[in-house]
Specification:
- By secondary structure, the protein is α/β, with parallel strands linked by helices.
- The chain folds into two domains: 74 residues; 153 residues, Collagenase (Catalytic Domain), CATH 3.40.390.10.
- Strands 1, 2, 3, 4, 5 and 6 form a six-stranded mixed β-sheet that branches.
- The longest helix has 50 residues.
- The protein is rod-shaped, with a radius of gyration of 61 Å.
- It binds zinc ion (ZN).
């Protein structure tokens, strides 16, 4: 052994002792760190277990809350995610879009103009002759007439004249019975004046006969037709305005031809045209034509 060889000295012994002391301290520190780590590990494991228990209790709140977490975990042989179907959350349905069928558009409200009520009552007291003429048809003596209307009423003069002429020349009318033929004219020397007038003027033109604003009449050469009756007829002729107008013309012209009033022959029989059908039918049926045999 050379001089350089290390010789165990007292100093060396001291150093060796210090070396062993440091090694022991390091081992002690390692043990403390391992111990601390085990403590942390235990705490962490406990917290994790509590978290799992809490989750189980939330998922199954109706369960026994006093059961330990370990028992809860022990009872569950399957993962929580694979819990029984009744505890599975309902599948989320896709959001449905409610489609409401469109209502059909309501019909457009359009206020319909009310049909103007014909003026048959407001009197002006002035008469106007319907211009024009209509030749007679058939054979027999000619009886001329002119049509006059009270001014201010809603009737069309030419339409009135056409209607009246059609009634007078109807084969069921007076022409074949009396061997006459009616000719319309606008001349002042006409044999007859057929006048459509308001109730008020009718009463004046019919005087001394009493028409009371409701009836029509024949006085001298005047056949006066009450415009109120012409427009609305009477209940006995409900829905038969055309027939009632024919009755009105034939009845009043019948007076001009010399006929007086007659009565209902038998219940259910056609009413004689010279019966005052405006006042009632006495059991007869409406009849506007003189050619109909009243029996
Ligand atoms: Zn009469």
């Amino acid at each position: 052994m050379s001089s350089v060889n290390r010789v165990m000295t007292a100093r060396d012994g001291y150093r060796g002792s210090r070396h062993h002391a440091r090694a022991r301290r390091r081992q002690a520190r390692r043990r403390r760190r391992r111990a601390k780590f085990r403590v942390k590990l235990v705490k962490w494991s406990g917290a994790a277990a509590l978290g799992v228990v809490a989750t189980v209790m939330l998922v199954q709140p109706e369960g026994d809350g006093r059961a330990s977490a370990a028992a809860s975990l022990r009872d569950r042989s399957v993962p929580i995610a694979a819990s029984t179907p009744e505890h599975q959350p309902a599948p989320v349905k896709p959001r449905q879009t409610l489609i409401t069928a469109k209502r059909p558009a309501p019909p457009k409200l359009v206020r319909q103009p009310e049909p103007a009520r014909p003026n048959v009552v407001r009197t002006t007291g002035r008469l106007a002759v319907v211009p024009g003429s209509t030749p007679a048809r058939g054979t027999g003596r000619t009886l001329t007439y002119r049509v006059e209307t009270e001014s201010g009423m809603s009737f069309s003069g030419p339409a009135l004249a056409a209607t009246i002429h059609g009634i007078l020349t109807d084969p069921r009318g007076w022409q074949p019975i009396e061997a006459v033929r009616f000719e319309r004219t606008d001349r002042p020397d006409a044999d007859l004046r057929i006048i459509i007038a308001t109730p008020q003027l009718t009463d004046r033109l019919c005087s001394p006969l009493i028409t009371g604003g409701e009836l029509s009449c024949r006085v001298h050469d005047r056949v006066v037709l009450n415009a109120k009756r012409w427009a609305y007829a009477v209940p006995a002729y409900a829905g038969q305005l055309t027939a009632y107008r024919s009755y009105l013309v034939n009845h009043e012209v019948g007076h001009a031809l010399g006929f007086g009033h007659s009565q209902c022959g038998a219940p259910g029989a056609p009413a004689p045209v010279m019966m005052q059908q405006t006042k009632g039918l006495q059991g007869c049926r409406p009849n506007p034509w003189p050619s109909v045999n009243p029996t």
